[in-house]
UniProtKB/TrEMBL annotation:
<comment type="pathway">
    <text>Carbohydrate biosynthesis; dTDP-L-rhamnose biosynthesis.</text>
</comment>
<dbReference type="InterPro" id="IPR029903">
    <property type="entry name" value="RmlD-like-bd"/>
</dbReference>
<protein>
    <recommendedName>
        <fullName>dTDP-4-dehydrorhamnose reductase</fullName>
        <ecNumber>1.1.1.133</ecNumber>
    </recommendedName>
</protein>
<keyword id="KW-0560">Oxidoreductase</keyword>
<keyword id="KW-0521">NADP</keyword>
<feature type="domain" description="RmlD-like substrate binding">
    <location>
        <begin position="1"/>
        <end position="281"/>
    </location>
</feature>
<dbReference type="GO" id="GO:0008831">
    <property type="term" value="F:dTDP-4-dehydrorhamnose reductase activity"/>
</dbReference>
<comment type="similarity">
    <text>Belongs to the dTDP-4-dehydrorhamnose reductase family.</text>
</comment>
<dbReference type="InterPro" id="IPR005913">
    <property type="entry name" value="dTDP_dehydrorham_reduct"/>
</dbReference>
<dbReference type="InterPro" id="IPR036291">
    <property type="entry name" value="NAD(P)-bd_dom_sf"/>
</dbReference>
<dbReference type="Pfam" id="PF04321">
    <property type="entry name" value="RmlD_sub_bind"/>
</dbReference>
<comment type="function">
    <text>Catalyzes the reduction of dTDP-6-deoxy-L-lyxo-4-hexulose to yield dTDP-L-rhamnose.</text>
</comment>
């Protein structure tokens, strides 16, 4: 199997390049080889590589900046996946698209299911939802993996930001009214590989295609996440819980973006608890 992997320099893409090796030949492309903002280039790279599977973790992930760059965010998060899916269809290939908890508005009481209606609050979430819909509409074998609060020991993420800030400051003020599940980039990549191995074995029978929530078990707030980070790193920094209103940002965030991974865990082993995975990652 030949796999075209985008965004290989991103958090999830980096882990995927390793995790997908067991499934076949991985052709990893970065922005220099395939710029998702250049739809013609996206088409020609797929036609040149001729993959059996396209795995697309590349995305415009700057949530606040997206509010002032909606056209670029839409091209990368929605139009490029649409082109990838169209090209996959022409080749008879399958596709994995990643999406986000930010497709939800956060008003639900309890964990979001795949069947819940999305209602994104900002440009990033809206464009990611449009990307999901484009992949489904192409009618190809697909996995849409919605994840949340991704961190790892490389790239740009909340864990590394808070480690840096906690070393620089005596006190950090962090929102305590947004609930979600921090998810390690390695968990996402390893789970993707397991799902794909299963789908390949069953020759992508219809039961495999669809949306899956792929988040760590359990939940916390950004403040709770920060406390765990600071504790694990044995840093001496006071963590002060605040409300979202006290931390104004360009894009609104959902108050509750906890997602149930029950559908995925029916097919695979249970996903790790967020706190255990964080401990392992930081060790
Ligand atoms: N980060 C998070 O907290 C979450 C992410 N997700 C989703 O998971 C997926 C993976 O995210 P993650 O790995 O964390 O994201 P990162 O921001 O770490 O990486 C994004 C990748 O996309 C690439 N990229 C951005 N713009 C372009 C472009 N125009 N052309 C080609 N490549 C481009 C980046 O390349 P470069 O290095 O050159 O900028 C980078 O490799 C995404 O679909 C994201 O929406 C879902 C929930 C949470
Ligand atoms: C740095 C910092 C952030 N915060 C708050 C701001 C915000 O409400 C919350 C999260 O911070 P960030 O803006 O870094 O995270 P954000 O960009 O909202 O993260 C999101 O990224 C996209 C790509 C996703 O798909 C989501 O799942 C989610 O991970 O923490 C504080 O309260 N204090 C601080 O010192």
């Amino acid at each position: 199997m030949k796999i075209l992997l985008t965004g290989a320099s991103g958090q999830v893409g980096y882990e995927l390049e390793r995790a997908l090796q067991s499934l076949g030949e991985v052709v990893a492309v970065d922005r220099a080889r395939m710029d998702l903002a250049d739809l013609q280039q996206v088409r020609s790279v797929v036609r040149e590589v001729r993959p059996n599977l396209i795995v697309n973790p590349a995305a415009y992930t700057a949530v606040d900046k997206a509010e002032s760059e909606p056209t670029l965010a839409r091209t990368i998060n929605a139009l490029a996946p649409a082109v990838l899916a169209e090209e996959a269809k022409a080749l008879g290939a399958a596709m994995v698209q990643y999406s986000t908890d930010y497709v939800f508005d956060g008003t639900k009481v309890g964990a979001y299911l795949e069947t819940d209606e999305p209602n994104p609050l900002g440009v990033y979430g809206k464009t990611k939802l449009e990307g999901e819909q484009a992949v489904v509409a192409a009618g190809i074998p697909h996995l849409i993996l919605r994840t949340s609060w991704v961190y790892g020991m490389r790239g740009k993420n909340f864990l590394l930001t808070m480690l840096r800030l906690a070393r620089e400051r005596d006190e950090l003020r962090v929102v305590d009214d947004q609930h979600g599940a921090p998810t390690w980039s390695r968990t996402i990549a390893d789970t993707t590989a397991l799902l794909l191995a299963q789908a390949k074995q069953d020759d992508w029978s219809d039961s495999h295609s669809g949306i899956y929530h792929l988040s760590a078990r359990g939940q916390t707030t950004w403040c709770g996440f920060t406390r765990a980070i600071v504790e694990n790193a044995s840093l001496d920094c006071r963590i002060v819980p605040i409300t979202s209103a006290e931390y104004p940002m360009a894009a609104p965030r959902p108050g509750n973006s906890v997602m149930s991974a029950a559908k995925l865990t029916e097919q695979l082993a249970v996903l790790p608890d967020w706190r255990k995975a964080l401990d392992l990652c930081m060790r």
